[in-house]
Design a protein that fits this description.
By secondary structure, the chain is an alpha+beta fold. The chain has one domain (2-185): Aminopeptidase, CATH 3.40.630.30. It has 6 helices and 8 strands; from the N terminus they run E-H-H-E-E-E-H-E-H-E-E-H-H-E. The radius of gyration is 16 Å and the shape is globular. The chain starts with a strand and ends with a strand.
């Protein structure tokens, strides 16, 4: 049974825990999709942000980073250790998120499906994983830091303007001007 530990500024006092999180974060996501780790950890002081490390007993298995606004939660990051893929941890994490946010529509991004991409098999498996866990593709996609990303939702649709409102609330009005995703209608 998985349990979580919140990732906050205090994580730096737990060298092994911090290194586990830092290593997974830096290897699971392309560099252009990574916000500075210090920044996202600092944002956990907001009530709307939740950064969790997941453990099976004492074994670190994964992480999530979620931003909530109104009745929506944006799952910015979800990763499990690559040596533990296909062991059910991702599904357990998704079930845990459903318990944390039972009344929220949850929205996420993932790389667009591209058969010519070098990682096309991984992209396909990720999308299948989210579909298996109840997510559907939104009627829009977005670009974020120059990357075209699909948008998927569960517990109801999240309209494009609502999706953008999550980021505006998270970043604040000024930083939002520089960091906001651009919506592409499908």
């Amino acid at each position: 049974m998985l349990h979580t530990k919140p990732v906050t500024k205090q994580i730096k006092h737990d060298k092994q825990g911090f290194n586990d999180i830092k290593n997974l974060y830096s290897t699971a996501f392309p560099r252009q999709e990574q916000a500075p780790l210090a920044f996202i950890i600092n944002q956990t002081k907001k009530d709307t942000v939740r950064f969790d490390a997941y453990y099976d007993g004492d074994v670190f298995v994964g992480l999530t980073y979620c931003i909530s606004f109104q009745d929506m939660t944006y799952l910015w990051y979800l990763a499990t250790r690559s040596d533990l893929h296909s062991k059910g941890y991702g599904t357990q994490i998704m079930q845990h998120l459903g318990k944390i946010y039972p009344n929220n529509r949850i929205v996420l991004n993932l790389d667009v499906q591209d058969e010519n991409a070098s990682d096309s098999d991984i992209r396909k498996r990720r999308k299948e994983f989210y579909i298996k866990n109840g997510y559907t593709t939104a009627e829009y996609s977005c670009t974020f830091n120059g990357n075209k990303l699909d948008v998927m939702c569960t517990n109801g649709n999240v309209a494009a303007d609502e999706f953008l409102s999550i980021f505006k609330n998270y970043f604040g009005a000024i930083m939002y001007l520089f960091a906001k995703p651009k919506i592409i209608q499908n």
